[in-house]
Design a protein that fits this description.
The protein is of the alpha+beta class. The chain has three domains: about 10-115, Orthogonal Bundle (Butyryl-Coa Dehydrogenase, subunit A, domain 1), CATH 1.10.540.10; about 120-230, Beta Barrel (Butyryl-CoA Dehydrogenase, subunit A, domain 2), CATH 2.40.110.10; about 230-385, Butyryl-CoA Dehydrogenase, subunit A, domain 3. It is built from ten helices and eight strands. The chain has helices at about 15-30, 35-45, 65-75, 80-100, 105-115, 235-270, 280-310, 320-345, 355-365, 375-385; strands at about 120, 135-140, 145-155, 160-170, 175-185, 190-195, 205-215, 220-225. It has a four-stranded mixed β-sheet, with helices on one face. The termini are far apart.
């Protein structure tokens, strides 16, 4: 079995709790139902306060430590871990800024301790560069901004009380800005449209949020930055670090589960052509070896980037490239592990009763999760070539 590196995980999620999460995962998926019971247990265990500094009432976990906890949770319930990541990454952003002396988002940390739940509302149809650009309109008005647009993949839809969104302010068309703000649940000017009937990660209940001139006061406006790569300040960069490395660890934990299931299955699986279990078949051994080798390269990569971030290593302009590459490497590798595992598991693996086909569907979503392959390769290549992230291709 694969050993999962962790830091005092028993103090946050005990084994009986994790087994309950695992037992409920298939039901949530089958019924396309939000993980309500898991969520309440996580809240009671203070898991939702992982990154909040101890001085403010949280657990004080760094990015590296939080990622290892998320990896462990994902091993048992990947959809639960993925959805919770949306809340954790916002608090991680605020906590890192707080530790560096920037107290502008301290209110987020205090509200989280008081029970508020933060979620992410960034995905938009027609925008393949999330965070840095937006199809949502942000209009400056007295006391705040009004937002109009449609946000997809609205994580934690049933329970969020603060939805993190961004929009484009084109009041000065020559200098467009991206406005990052948090929409309180009791605001006017938005509706939630239930759209979440999807391939995998179904328990997240990531429905659409339609903004119709929704007003957000200045108190809940986190940042106003230039559009595009020029707007990657410490706040935006922290979103990438906490969000994408969290995603990578969720899919890594999922892939670890897939490997363990595959190993267990072949130890008992029989064939008329063999006198011993299928574990002794050379090609089965070859495939298991490929899965292990893949996982051996994912974990250290994720750990190194998260630890560098947590330890304040100065990678300068290389940071977006390093973060995007680590997330990409993790989700692509996780997909290969799960896909090969289905070959090992055999035909029974496509039945829901086996529990493996859900992992296949969940793992496939990692590859479209921001940042997708197209954006990752663009960011990594431009960084390596010394080209501005805002440079546009010229054709003809």
């Amino acid at each position: 079995m694969v050993t999962i590196t962790k830091r005092s995980v028993e103090n946050v999620l005990d084994s009986s709790m994790l087994e309950r999460f695992h037992a409920r995962a298939s039901t949530y998926d089958r019924e396309n139902r939000f993980f309500e019971e898991d969520f309440e247990e996580l809240r009671a265990a203070q898991y939702l306060l992982l990154p909040v500094p101890k001085e403010l009432g949280g657990l004080g976990f760094s990015l590296a430590e939080s990622c290892r906890e998320q990896r462990h949770l994902a091993y048992y319930a990947p959809a639960t871990a993925l959805a919770v990541n949306m809340h954790i990454y916002w608090l991680g952003v605020a906590a890192d800024l707080w530790r560096r002396g920037d107290r502008s988002l301290e209110w987020m940390l205090r509200e989280a301790v008081a029970g508020e739940v933060f979620a992410a509302g960034h995905a938009e149809s027609g925008n393949d560069i999330p965070i840095l650009l937006s199809t949502t309109k942000a209009e400056r008005v007295d006391g705040g901004y009004r937002f109009s647009g449609r946000k997809q993949f609205g994580s934690l839809t049933p329970v969020w009380s603060r939805l993190g969104i961004h929009g484009m302010d084109v009041g000065d068309p020559h200098h467009p800005k991206i406005v990052h703000a948090f929409l309180p649940r009791d605001s006017a000017g938005y509706i939630i449209k239930e759209t979440w009937d999807v391939l995998g990660m179904r328990a997240t209940r990531s429905d659409d949020t339609i903004l119709e001139n929704a007003f957000i006061p200045d108190h809940y406006v986190a940042r106003v930055v230039p559009a595009g790569g020029a707007g990657i300040d410490p706040f935006v960069l922290s979103i990438f670090a906490w969000g994408l490395l969290g995603f990578g660890n969720v899919y890594y934990g999922l892939a670890q589960r897939a490997l363990d299931i595959a190993i267990t299955s072949v130890k008992d699986k029989r064939s008329l052509a063999l006198t011993r279990p299928m574990a002794h078949h050379p090609e089965i051994q070859h495939t298991i070896a490929e899965m292990v080798i893949e996982l051996e390269s994912i974990g250290p990569h994720l750990d190194r980037i998260a630890e560098d971030w947590s330890n304040g290593v100065d990678h300068g302009a290389q940071w977006p490239s390093k973060i995007f590459a680590a997330k990409y490497r993790a989700v692509e590798g996780a997909w290969r592990v799960v896909d090969r595992g289905l070959d090992v598991f055999g035909g029974f693996g496509i039945f829901r009763s086996a529990g493996y086909e859900r992992l296949v569907r969940d793992a496939r979503l990692g590859r479209i999760h921001p940042a997708n392959s197209f954006l990752t390769h663009e960011v990594v290549a431009k960084t390596a070539l010394g080209i501005s992230l805002d440079d546009q291709p010229r054709w003809g």
